[in-house]
Amino acid sequence: xxxxxxxxxxxxxxxxxxxxxxxxxxxxxxxxxxxxxxxxxxxxxxxxxxxxxxxxxxxxxxxxxxxxxxxxxxxxxxxxxxxxxxxxxxxxxxxxxxxxxxxxxxxxxxxxxxxxxxxxxxxxxxxxxxxxxxxx
Length: 136
Description:
2 domains; elongated; 136 residues
């Protein structure tokens, strides 16, 4: 097993443990709703500290139910993950393209035929064309 595979296995185990252990030990069972979000937790804490507190802002859109709110949050997370995946994929593709291009130059192959401009040189597609300077 390679070093990267071992690291991936350990990370996978840690993530699974973080998901399962709170459920196995019953953490949050004393609460009415154990899986409330941080917004609700903060609102409850503020109300306990300062009962007369008035919020500075109100939400622009209040979903009609908790299920719709959860669905919108999941959609937002999925869109964010898609944007990040696109960005990292684009970066990786560009880096691989640069590495391939530099490997070609190092091997003495020059640019690929499409980038050679059809000058008839060593990397060109036509043997008889050539440039004006090459025909003299």
